[in-house]
Design a protein that fits this description.
single chain; mainly alpha; 2 domains; three-stranded antiparallel beta sheet; 7 helices; 3 strands; about 60% helix; transcription regulation; transcription; DNA-binding
Length: about 130
């Protein structure tokens, strides 16, 4: 307890941290709003500037490794461009999770059996359309 009777946690409230998935979606969103390829510092400013530059660079590098963003060299830095939207990023995460499972068939069967009727119908339609595409 401090002199004012408040516990240290009361005087210094914890800052809520954003999860990696949330940060990735925010970075992708910022890049999609950009008028063209954007520098990491621009992305940092679009996210409110409360993230460290190194954090933004780490997120951009991870997104690049996932194929969700592309980059091109401009002088000493990179310019970044969204290659996927938020839905595409979610799909990449789902695919990576599925790729990490030993019994892929069981995971897919469990996923499909838990779908809502509308989602199941949509999935059937999408699979039919994908099967017709050369």
């Amino acid at each position: 307890m401090g002199e004012d009777g408040a516990a240290p946690a009361d005087r210094y409230p914890r800052v809520r941290r954003r999860g990696q998935g949330v940060l990735e979606a925010q970075v992708i969103g910022a890049l999609r709003r950009a008028p063209g390829p954007a520098a990491a510092v621009w992305v940092q400013q679009q996210l409110g500037g409360d993230l460290a530059y190194t954090t933004v660079m780490t997120i951009l590098s991870r997104l690049h490794a996932k194929g969700a963003v592309s980059r091109s060299r401009s002088g000493r830095c990179y310019l970044w461009l969204a290659a996927a939207d938020e839905a595409g990023l979610a799909a990449l995460r789902m695919r990576r999770m599925l790729d990490g499972e030993h019994n892929r068939d069981a995971v897919l069967a469990s996923f499909v059996s838990a779908l809502l009727p509308h989602d199941e119908e949509l999935l059937r339609t999408l699979l039919d359309e994908a099967g017709r595409t050369p």
